[in-house]
């Protein structure tokens, strides 16, 4: 059984890593909007590394539960899961929007 404290600590880790990834993804969009696509891609890489760390934290608990360990839900874990999920979506959408911004810039340069 994982204790509430252990589960909450994973929740805090999810919030921290996913929060850092969220910030990096937003900064990547800002950089792309300013036309700095190299910086945008570097920030997306940073966001992906952070989200991978969050996912690794989550997977440790999922593995314990799959092995039969009893898990108590904590509010911080729910918040961590929510932050992880929404940030994963943000990163996917940021990649798409940055590709679109590159296309727009190329089209504008042709005019």
From TrEMBL:
Q: Which PROSITE patterns match?
A: PTS_EIIA_TYPE_3
As for subcellular location, the record says: Cytoplasm
Give the residues annotated as coiled coil. Answer: 37-64
Cross-referenced InterPro entries? PTS_IIA_lac/cel, PTS_IIA_lac/cel_sf
Q: Which Pfam families match?
A: PTS_IIA
> In its UniProt record, which GO terms are filed under biological process?
phosphoenolpyruvate-dependent sugar phosphotransferase system
Query: What is the protein's name according to its record?
Result: PTS system lactose-specific EIIA component
In its UniProt entry, the species of origin is given as Lacticaseibacillus casei (Lactobacillus casei)
Q: What is the lineage of its organism?
A: Bacteria, Bacillati, Bacillota, Bacilli, Lactobacillales
